[in-house]
Amino acid sequence: MKVAPVLVVLSILFIGLSDAYEILVIFPSLGKSQHIIGSALARGLAEKGHEVTMIAAFPTEPATENVHDIVTRLDLGMLEGAPINFYETGEYPFEELMIVYKLGAFVANSTLGSKGVQKLMNSNQTFDIIICEAFAIEAFLGLSHHFHAPVISLSTLGASGFTAQMADFPGSQSYIPNLFLPYTDKMTLLERIFNIMTETIERLLYEWYHIPIQEKIYNEYFRDPKPSLRETINNISLVLLNTHFSLSFPRPYATNVIEVGGLHINRKSQPLPADIQSFIDSAKFGVIYFSMGTNLRGVDLAAEKRNAILAVFGSLKQKVLWKWEDESLPGKPNNVLIKSWFPQDDILAQPNVKLFITHGGLLSTTESIYHGVPIVGIPVFGDQHLNMARAEKIGIGVRMDLKNLDEVNFKAAVIEVLTNEKYTHRVKKMSELFRDQPQTPLDSAIFWVEYIARHGGAPHMKSTGQELSCIQYYNIDALMVIFTIIIIFIYALGRVFSMIRSVLCGSKQRCDPKVNIKKRK
């Protein structure tokens, strides 16, 4: 009689254990913003009872039970050559792309060769699923073959040239702007021409420059026999995108591409440090929050730009929170509070924050929309120009070109957004649209990770388009055959008409009107 309750408890425990998976999360990029996305998903999976091993440049914060960190502690200072000052880049899209490729090669080679990762690869550890960041680090896909586990790719940038190689992304360059261009989905003729040229050159650079570098790293760390790197890319089971149709330009996706934009946002705001909360509460006319993200440091701003910003802040009645990475800021007005780090998500949740001045990164623009805070964007690098073009189009803020940033232009942009209520009204409406989802983006991401694990990679979700070559995908071979048939048909038809004409006329003289006229005379 006492055995039955014990069996029930054991059955429940067994069911719980059977639904728990061993998951490897790979987010080795040097940007803290990318790590925020990866660690948010890792913590969410761990809280569901899964065992998560995370390879990253930073530790998971806050530390979470069931998340086991392998921290590489890489940083940009280890990169060969001069340190990258992102304020001095961004002149041309291909210059930015080459920097991304360079960073990707450094991260892939350094991380795969690190002691922690090598120890993991030489262990008896097994995994049910691998989640890998989609950011120029394709060599890591060799871990799928090494651990015999399906791969999910998570893009912190939304759809990009990298994710386009991993799944079937239908669509046209006529309305889908390149990630590195400041265009919207309504482009002029010249913009469409440049967009097509940029997409084509990016594809060629990817295939003939970037992939060979990644393949060399892949071959160095993964033994034969193994599939080619291209085969591992085509074998990705699912692509998760850090975007949402209410945040971006609507576009079609394949079945195995899922939008989970905003999965890192706290649905319940955390208490702020006492000094920050007091500063915000004491701001009679509201607060402006200014941050250029994790890779663009305020201390690297040119002196004339910094002084122009300080002059504007000093002239405002609002208080300002400025993410500044140094202990002091020369010329800092009394209404400005500087810190090397702010809990951005929780600050934007404060009702008294009236404006967000940002670099236009996808995480920042997503958080501003979720919390209903209008923005002034100063895009510098990568997708920031695209994000701010989108923000201007939907009416949630204005874009400030870094080249034109001076006291007059910067103040005009700040005052425009602070005093014109249309930006606040519009961003509140966008927040309403973004929040109206059947489940949170994090819950959606967790569901699809578990779905892929349950169904052994879910090959039934993958489009055959992933397996086709470029010639097959765009039907170039079929069109060439059709064109050749048409040419042959036209030629043959011409020959037939010529033969009929010859038979009917009998000879050239009988068919020549001039000859016949002469004969009558």
The rough form would be described as globular
Q: CATH class of the largest domain, anyone?
A: Alpha Beta
**What fold name stands as the CATH topology of the largest domain?**
Rossmann fold
Number of strands: 13
List the total number of helices: 19
Structural class: alpha/beta
Percent in helix:
40-55%
Membrane topology: Single-pass membrane protein
Family: Belongs to the UDP-glycosyltransferase family.
Subcellular location: Membrane
Protein name: UDP-glucuronosyltransferase
Summarize the structure.
The chain has 521 residues and is α/β, with parallel strands linked by helices. Helix content is 46%, strand content 12%.
Explain the overall architecture.
The chain is an alpha/beta fold. It is built from 19 helices and 13 strands. A seven-stranded parallel beta sheet has the order 3-2-1-4-5-6-7, covered by helices on one side. The longest helix is centred in the middle third of the chain and has 33 residues. The chain is globular and about 100 Å long. About 2% of the residues have low confidence.
